[in-house]
Amino acid sequence: MSLAHTTVLLCAWGSLQAFEIVEKENIFLKTPCPAFLMFDNAAYLADMSFELPCHCKPEEVPAVVWYYQKHVGSSHTKVLTDFDGRVLTEAAQVRVGSDMLVRFSIRMFSLLVFRAQPEDSGLYFCGTRKGEYFYAYDVDIQSNEGMVATFKDMGQKPFADEYYGNLHVFTTFWEWTPCDRCGVRGEQWRIGLCYLQSPDLSPRYRRTQSDVVSCGSQAVPRRLRTTVRDHMPELLVQSCLVPCEKKNRFRESVLAIYNYVSKVGSKPWVPKVPIQFHQQRLGHGLIISCPGARPEHAVAWDKDHQHLYRTQYLKGVNRSMRVFIDHGNQLHIRFTQLSDRGIYYCWRQGVQIAGFRLSVTSRGHYPASLSDPETRAAVELTLISYLLITAIFVTVHLCRCCCYSFRFRPMFSP
């Protein structure tokens, strides 16, 4: 390609980028800010990442600041801003349990919150440094701790709608995920969040459907929140079978060359996906995450040639499970045993992308830390046992003192 053609292409690319930026800026010119601030209702499941666009702002405002309040009129307000050279946060850098001030990012006036927790529920305002608000959201992060799994292949059905007078409580399901495996029997699921319908909702909160909001919305009166508190999110699971896409011919040719140049009986082992090696101490817990996967993705796990289906390994199916998959698509191994050795393969959106070769050893020293779940469980069990023994000891001695006082109480005659 000549220099003139390259220059023309670069100019055209720059014009397209400029046109895209102008188009994005024109959105704010076409969308006037409301005279009275309203709250858009949005609901998500815990550990998910969400984005809140600032749909309107004055043209003269070059950058926005996001504010967070737990309740309307709260005296405590968090200021979410990326001014003063703040580095943008990436989803892969976020740790579970960290504060929201290190789990957010602002890009093109939109607020991104990574791995949201139920404590992040509340009101989010898009505004300026001076505290002028343009747009607002009512965000409801529903916990996945009591999430109920329903397996369609076993004939199970989701919970029926609940009616309490004018109050209607129901589950709204998202779209089905893609099949989590290809070429073999896989699974797909859809997440259902709690919603309600009532004429007693606050008119300041904007809904997509009349008188319908998520169960944790600020628009729900306090007297109704206790009624819907027991309605948990649901997970609907069913089997699926899809063919795999054609493999890369280049990779197949490379494998053919390996087989040709290798000696008979000593062919090199070439993994289909990148393999990560990990050594775990016997009796300790392990949590494996699929690279690049999010809770809303279709993720599957295999151990060597064994498929770990959610019908058997989903968290909550059996209380005594030692190996299970949580609702965030992570694989948990509690109290590692020698039989856990092997390669654990990870599927994401129907494609096998990574493997983890696990070796278990009884050697080595691991310092105890409160960040270790087993250490915390041991400390909690020790404290509970100590308190229980202390309570029994005090109760026995109190009973003995009472019996002694009643037995030797002096009798006074009139």
CATH fold-level name of the largest domain: Immunoglobulin-like
Structural class: alpha+beta
- The helical percent reads 10-25%
Q: Number of helical runs?
A: 5
Which secondary structure elements does this structure contain, and how are they paired or packed?
Blueprint: H1 3-30, E1 39-45, E2 50-52, E3 65-69, E4 77-80, E5 104-107, E6 110-113, E7 122-127, E8 133-142, E9 148-151, E10 162-164, E11 167-173, E12 186-197, E13 205-206, E14 212-214, H2 222-228, E15 234-240, H3 249-261, E16 275-281, E17 286-288, E18 299-303, E19 306-308, H4 310-313, E20 323-325, E21 331-333, E22 342-348, E23 351-361, H5 373-407
Parallel strand pairs: 1-8, 1-13, 9-15, 16-23
Antiparallel strand pairs: 2-6, 3-4, 3-7, 5-6, 7-8, 10-11, 11-12, 12-14, 12-15, 17-21, 18-19, 18-22, 20-21, 22-23
Polypeptide structure, described:
This protein folds into three domains: 25-142, Immunoglobulins (Immunoglobulin-like), CATH 2.60.40; 148-240, no CATH class; 274-361, Immunoglobulin-like (Sandwich), CATH 2.60.40. It is 21% helix and 30% strand. It contains five helices and 23 strands. A six-stranded mixed beta sheet has the order 4-3-7-8-1-13, with no helix packed on it. Strands 9, 10, 11, 12, 14 and 15 form a six-stranded mixed beta sheet that branches. It has a five-stranded mixed beta sheet with strand order 16-23-22-18-19. A hairpin with a 7-residue loop joins β3 (65-69) and β4 (77-80). The protein is globular and about 65 Å long.
In short:
It comes from Marmota monax (Woodchuck). The protein has 414 residues and is α+β, with helices and mostly antiparallel strands. 21% of the residues lie in helices and 30% in strands.
